């Protein structure tokens, strides 16, 4: 089969022939139609991640969309979404014509959403949904600040906050292109990122009307420091990434005087049922245009170019391999 094959850690995968997957007990074979290129794919392939170096060669791709070719639990032709552990444990992922997937990880797709859009939303949208509903427990009428609002998680979080009844949604973005994506996703206002904490704090305060109930934070760093300073009494900041660094500074006086919460989140904490229910809910809203992520389709044989664009930030939307 055709696949994107990683032969050396730290390098780009190459389009090549690769052995077809052979299912083990409790696995199905999915014919892949779309798979997003996400930061986790690059981290796993770098050979420097906390998952360790996995045996080479392997096919990257931590999530995908496709139809079942062989399964003992669902009918052939069933349309599914699936996660993989490629790069986190031995085995191949979704950047191939076929992928072996544990039966328990298959999520049947019923919503009329295009495969590439499902792939673009994927686990990023699952994270956004679960951060707001499960970790932050957003209530109707509360306000939300989304850091990294032009990214996939950010766009999905803006849409999710809107459908959950947020009263005001402010986004923080780095570029004009990201600003436009955040506005298209439903943000009421967008604040430009600055490296000065005091300036950014003032901008957040002005945009939020003085304080905010929930912060969705996939970036950390300076933006998280500034956001923590405008949390309302009982406010919650949920961190799910470190795109801008691994450290942020929080004031003890702010945390204590306002009884705010700083929470962590990872999709790895979810059960299969939580992941399925979250994606199903997201796609119900995506089907009517309420939650969306901007994406660009790229053919599988251009994986090397797509990988380089993702790793160097030369993207204006989520890159989705079409297979």
Please give the radius of gyration in angstroms: 20 Å
**Anisotropy-based shape:** globular
> Mean pLDDT, nearest integer?
97
Topology, number of strands: 15
Protein structure class = alpha/beta
Oligomeric state of shown chains: single chain
One letter per element, helices H and strands E, the order comes to EEEHEEEEHEHEHEHEHEHEHEHE
Between the first and last Cα atoms, what is the distance in angstroms?
11 Å
What fraction of residues sit in β-strands?
A: 25-35%
Structure description:
The structure is a single chain. The chain is α/β, with parallel strands linked by helices and 323 residues long. The protein is 32% helix and 25% strand. It contains 9 helices and 15 strands. It has helices at 39-46, 115-135, 152-163, 176-185, 197-208, 221-228, 252-257, 272-286, 303-312, and strands spanning 2-5, 14-17, 27-37, 63-70, 79-83, 98-102, 107-108, 143-146, 168-173, 189-192, 212-217, 231-239, 261-264, 295-299, 318-322. Strands 3, 4, 5, 6, 7, 14 and 15 form a 7-stranded mixed β-sheet that branches. A 6-stranded parallel β-sheet has the order 10-9-8-11-12-13, with helices on both faces. Strands 1-2 form a two-stranded antiparallel sheet. Strand 14, helix 9 and strand 15 (318-322) form a beta-alpha-beta unit. The model has no long low-confidence stretch (mean pLDDT 97).
């Amino acid at each position: 089969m055709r696949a994107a094959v990683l032969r050396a850690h730290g390098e780009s995968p190459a389009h090549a022939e690769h052995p077809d997957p052979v299912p083990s007990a409790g696995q199905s074979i999915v014919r892949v139609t779309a798979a997003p290129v996400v930061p986790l794919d690059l981290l796993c392939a770098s050979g420097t991640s906390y998952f360790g170096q996995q045996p080479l060669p392997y096919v990257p791709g931590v999530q995908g969309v496709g139809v079942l070719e062989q399964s003992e639990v669902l009918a052939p032709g069933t349309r599914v979404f699936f996660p993989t552990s490629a790069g986190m444990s031995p085995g191949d992922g979704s950047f191939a014509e076929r992928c072996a997937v544990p039966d328990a990880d298959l999520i049947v797709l019923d919503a009329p959403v295009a495969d590439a859009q499902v792939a673009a939303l994927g686990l990023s949208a699952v994270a956004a949904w679960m951060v707001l509903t499960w970790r932050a427990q957003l209530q109707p009428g509360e306000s939300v600040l989304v850091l990294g609002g032009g990214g996939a998680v950010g766009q999905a979080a803006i849409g999710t906050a809107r459908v959950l009844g947020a009263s005001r949604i402010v986004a923080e973005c780095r570029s004009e292109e990201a600003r436009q994506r955040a506005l298209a996703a439903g943000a009421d206002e967008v604040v430009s990122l600055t490296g000065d904490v005091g300036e950014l704090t003032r901008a957040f305060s002005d945009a939020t009307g003085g304080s905010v109930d929930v912060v969705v934070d996939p970036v950390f760093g300076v933006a998280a420091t500034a956001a923590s300073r405008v949390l309302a009494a009982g406010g919650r900041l949920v961190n799910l990434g470190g795109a801008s660094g691994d450290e942020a500074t929080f004031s003890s006086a702010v945390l204590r005087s306002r009884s705010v919460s700083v929470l962590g989140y990872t999709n790895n904490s979810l059960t299969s049922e939580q992941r399925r229910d979250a994606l199903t809910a997201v796609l119900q809203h995506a089907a009517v245009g309420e939650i969306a992520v901007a994406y660009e389709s790229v053919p599988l044989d251009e994986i090397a170019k797509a990988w380089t664009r993702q790793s160097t930030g030369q993207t204006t939307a989520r890159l989705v391999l079409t297979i």
